[in-house]
Amino acid sequence: MLVTQKEDDVKSLVEGLNFSQKVERSLALIDHAYREFGKGFVIANSLGKDSVVVWHLAKRVSSEIRGFIVTTRYKPRETVQFMHEEVAKYPELQVYRNDAQTPKELYALDPDLCCNILKVEPTRKAIKEMRVTCWGTGLRCTEGRTRTDFREVEERDEGLIKLNPILIWYEREVWQYLALNQVRVNPLYARGYRSLGCEPCTQIAAGKDERAGRWIGTSKCGGECGIHTRPLKLDYQI
Ligand code: SF4
After folding, report:
1. Ligand 1 pocket check for 107: Cβ under 6 Å
2. Nearest to 83 by CA among 188, 201, 165, 203
3. Of 60, 75, 182, 230, which has the highest C-beta tally within 10 A?
4. Are strands 41-44 and 66-70 parallel, antiparallel or unpaired?
5. Which of the two residues, 208 and 164, has the higher pLDDT score?
6. Furthest-apart CA pair in the chain: how many Å?
7. DSSP state of 39
8. 96 near 68, Cβ under 8 Å?
9. Rounded mean pLDDT, 192-204
10. What is the Cα–Cα distance from 137 to 228, expressed in whole angstroms?
11. Is 72's C-beta closer than 6 angstroms to any atom of ligand 1?
12. 3: pLDDT confidence band, cut at 50, 70 and 90?
């Protein structure tokens, strides 16, 4: 299902399609991936609002679609509680976590290394163990400066297709979908967070950039944990 898109094509879809057309397009992309990859098509569910939308869309396509959650020892209490509730409701969600020891406050000393150990490694493990050939994500190109260069269908790792079915949605459309479908979200959003991550690296931030509250005060500010930028088809170390 390799679709090559230019940056301008993505931009015209973001601006040119209305909410309902975007929902239909996302459902069609997920349906296409599920038909092509079957059990190898798996959703990476970060439990954030965007992942919750993709998970809901996937369940509309087929209740059989599986997912995985990567959690860390630093997730906020509310996120852990929300995760337990989602897993109880959807046992086809598998949880991955790296319990290896890390230096104290590694997140402050070297957040890239911390994310690599606690997020990227368990993602590699999930992809290998669940025999993923195509993974679906909640990534959106309007989220921040580091997310403008993605496409709806990508092959960053050879033999591993990545589907970003809501790539072209605005933040407003995510909330529109969640409200119209009465989908529950992490209660932290009610406090003002717009992007959720680990507790020491996530703050409530005002302003235009949705991911501005992530890794404030580090070189990673507003950036990425690495699961969307690093190779994933490698042997994991956990
Ligand atoms: S978000 Fe922060 S605490 Fe979580 S893995 Fe990355 S650096 Fe570590």
Report:
1. yes
2. 188
3. 75
4. parallel
5. 164
6. 48
7. G
8. yes
9. 92
10. 9
11. yes
12. low
